Amino acid sequence: MTPLDLLCETPFHDADAPTRALALSRLADTELFAALTQEPADDRAELQIYELPEGPVALACDLEERLAGFVGGPVAYVALPGRLLVAALAAEGRGLLVNPGQPSQMLLEPGVLQWLTGALEARPNLAPDAASADLRPPEPATVADLAGPLSLRLGDMVGLVARAALFGSVWADGRRNHTLLLLGVAETHREALAKAFAELLAFLPEQPGGVDIAFADSALPPVALVLDIPEPQAEAVAPQRDPKAPPRLRW
């Protein structure tokens, strides 16, 4: 089971909108192996395009073995982040077939890829330098919408974020919103992490007043909901490959 599979316990096309949005967010951050018509020449590669009733689509999987298994043998491929593949296909008006025959199978039409590309352009709302007039516990509805996905994203940032919390803010001008506070983040990483969380928030239900992102090195506010940061997982020892096994996706 891959991270995409784990987000698709309900098949992607049967899932509710928030679940589909989370799966698309994860797709953007996943390394995909896309089938090519032939081995790349210099820095150019031509995607294999399949004509389906829904229109022309490229084929990609999140494991090399899955791509080979679906095609039925070795195939030329290119490995690249999902966000780059999605942007290229959206610009050409083509769709994307992901992980056919797997729990995370997706058939994404050009309109979906264009929406995904737009969501990935989200920019962070950084909290003002001035302190808010009042801090409050986060609203229960906001906790229900955001806590799980934010904790999941924090799992990708083990070692970069020491602690994280969510709380409500009331500002001097009367504006109310929520703040995601990240502690222990090095200055050199703050811009990238703010962008990563802004992207994730773009896939989640919009919250009244929005969600600001802030950084600090001090203690968390007492009213804040502390978000779990998963412990780093020990890397599994790669199994020894059977020397009699078929070649792995290369000509």
From TrEMBL:
Ranges where the SseB protein N-terminal domain occurs: 16-115
Tree of life domain: Bacteria
Pfam families assigned: SseB
InterPro entries named in the record: SseB_N
Stated name of the protein: SseB protein N-terminal domain-containing protein
Source organism of the structure: Paracoccus limosus
